[in-house]
Amino acid sequence: MFKPGEVYSRRTLHQQYGGQPHNRICTPADHNMILLFANHHHSENGTGPYTSGWTKYGVFRFIGEGRYGHMAFTRGNRALRDHITYNKRLHIFVRTSRATPDDVRYEGEFVYRGHFYKEGHDQRNNPRRMIVFVLKPRNVIPVAT
User: Fold this and answer.
1) How far apart are CA 131 and CA 85, in angstroms?
2) Residue 2: its pLDDT value, please?
3) What is the mean pLDDT of residues 97-104?
4) Closest among 60, 26, 70, 63 to 134, alpha carbons compared
């Protein structure tokens, strides 16, 4: 379906599959997928309130959605957490640069492995609890020791 490393137009993805075009967690109603969008700048250098990206442990941390107050397991956050229950596959795209916000690079298909909370601030600069999802690449098979 998608090729890891390939750059796609986010606009074209939404035209083809649907989903919420301005959300970072998009849930196309007529397809068994969830599209996750991370910002290149935030995922590359770890700045900003929505720091998503790869860790040195080979998992992708993805910050949940919600602009104000504590993040909760509603809408996209619930869909992401419960994607296996709803038979939805997680696909992560990272914006390639600030200059070309419509261009997104496909990172791959992932599986929810858990979450934790971190303290941060909302868009009104009020303190809040943020959900950080821990996502594992789907094609990685753990080795028994």
Assistant:
1) 20
2) 94
3) 82
4) 60
List the single range of 3-7, 41-45, 102-106, 118-122 with lowest mean pLDDT. 41-45
Q: Distance between CA 115 and CA 60 in Å, rounded? A: 11
**DSSP run (H or E) holding 131:** strand 127-137
Q: CA torsion, points 75, 127, 120, 22, in degrees to nearest 10?
A: 40
Q: Is pLDDT larger for residue 21 or for residue 43?
A: 21
Count of positions (residues) in the chain: 145
- Three-class secondary structure of residue 45 per DSSP: helix
- CA 119 to CA 131: how far, in whole Å? 9
The pLDDT of residue 26 is above 80: yes
Number of CB atoms found within 10 A of residue 66's CB: 18
Mind listing the pLDDT tens digit for each residue in 121-131?
888 899 999 99
Buried b (16+ CB within 10 A) or exposed e, 22-33: eebbbbbeeeeb
Element containing residue 17 per DSSP (H, E): helix 10-17
